[in-house]
Amino acid sequence: MASVKNLKKDINYTLGDIIEECYIAQMLTPANSKKTEAIIDEAIETFDVLIEKVHAKNVENKRAHYKAINTELEAKANVLVEKLNKL
Questions:
Q1: Rounded to 5 degrees, what are φ and ψ at 60?
Q2: pTM of the model
Q3: CA-to-CA distance for 24 and 6, rounded, in angstroms?
Q4: Are 42 and 80 spatial neighbours (Cβ–Cβ below 8 Å)?
Q5: Nearest alpha-carbon partner for 81 in 4, 14, 3
Q6: What average pLDDT does the segment 66-70 reach?
């Protein structure tokens, strides 16, 4: 992990892109708006949780902590994209 700043940017850009795709899906198929809203809510909740973990102060091994956050981001993003693709 290069820096905390880059980790925050990765979280923001990744989840932001997913939310943007949800809005595009809503415009293309308004019938799925409830499902896309649920995905957006889940992405926002994931963002809040990950940023809270980044700002945790009582971490012993920072490198492993940030690596775990990055891994969790990838896993959550993949789940959200799969849900979006099913629409």
A1: -80, -55
A2: 0.90
A3: 27
A4: yes
A5: 14
A6: 94
